[in-house]
Automatic annotation (TrEMBL):
It comes from Asaia siamensis. The keyword Oxidoreductase applies. It catalyses: L-methionyl-[protein] + [thioredoxin]-disulfide + H2O = L-methionyl-(S)-S-oxide-[protein] + [thioredoxin]-dithiol; [thioredoxin]-disulfide + L-methionine + H2O = L-methionine (S)-S-oxide + [thioredoxin]-dithiol. Keywords: Oxidoreductase. Belongs to the MsrA Met sulfoxide reductase family. Residues 42-62 are annotated as: Disordered. This is Peptide methionine sulfoxide reductase MsrA. Has an important function as a repair enzyme for proteins that have been inactivated by oxidation. Catalyzes the reversible oxidation-reduction of methionine sulfoxide in proteins to methionine.
Length: 263
């Protein structure tokens, strides 16, 4: 198995980052009865600072599954977050924002292909809205104020983007980011961009379901497990214990997998 992260950097950051995320999780768990729809966000020093009305609910009876692409740093952790969200029906780690012929891990890691490590999320709008997915993304999946960086990973391939697939998604995402910035929910302006998805490409098989298959990998234990704790505490109604596992087939499609992926 290829180990893609800087182990020394992970070891140096382990104690401080885990402590910060543990504080966020502990504080979030103190608000289990918040009315819906709200968002509890954190400032730069990780203190919850109030409630924010969530984006509009796009669920209507009879709607077919929808999909959107989120980029927020290493795709291992972002995929793991959405795999544990009730109403998500499939996910796929991959690359977006660049040309298909350079959408390979080694090339993307050089940081000059235009790609961002991304996760394609298919969801049932009658069970979870696009607005809820964005609330989860901004609250626990990443620090949306970081530019070309998430945790120890740096470079444009780790930038924060919502790659939308409908005009409605784009309007809602842009309006929500403006709303959060206007309310100064975060200590710094949100750096997440909203762009149309044009060329999402699935990542190599070894990167799919990585956190579920290697839960004791040092990177997963350090940076991703605490975020799952925060998801469970902050969004108990959206939490699902068993992740929805999916493996890639042809580009642009998702296939569910019955393989637990665990070794």
């Amino acid at each position: 198995m290829m180990i893609r992260k800087n182990v020394l950097g992970v070891a140096l950051a382990t104690f401080s980052l885990y402590g910060i995320l543990h504080q966020v999780t502990s504080r979030a768990s103190a608000y289990p009865t918040l009315p819906e729809p709200v968002i509890v966000a954190k400032t730069g020093n990780d203190k919850p600072i109030g409630q924010m009305t969530a984006p509009p609910d796009d669920s209507r009876p009879g709607m077919t599954p929808s999909s959107v692409v989120f980029a927020g740093g290493c795709f291992w952790g972002v995929q793991s977050i959405f795999q544990h969200v009730r109403g998500v029906t499939a996910t796929r780690a991959g690359y977006d924002g660049g040309a298909r012929d350079t959408a390979q891990y080694e090339r993307v890691s050089e940081g000059d292909t235009g790609h961002a490590e991304s996760v394609e999320v298919e969801y049932d709008p009658t069970l979870v809205s696009f607005g809820t997915l964005m609330r989860i993304f901004f609250t626990v999946a990443l620090d949306p104020t970081q530019i070309d960086q998430q945790f120890p990973d740096t470079g444009p391939q780790y930038r924060s983007v919502i790659f939308t697939r409908t005009a409605q998604q784009a309007r809602v995402a842009e309006a929500y980011i403006a709303q959060l910035d206007a309310a100064h929910i975060f200590a710094q302006p949100i750096a997440t961009h909203v762009q149309p998805d044009k060329a999402f490409s699935g990542a190599e098989r070894e990167h799919q379901n990585f956190a579920a298959r290697y839960p004791h990998n040092i990177y997963i234990e350090t940076y991703d497990a605490p975020r799952l704790d925060a998801l469970r505490a902050s969004f108990p109604a959206s939490w699902r214990t068993e992740p929805v596992l999916a493996l890639s087939t042809a580009p642009g499609s998702l296939r569910m997998s019955n393989d637990s992926g665990r070794k």
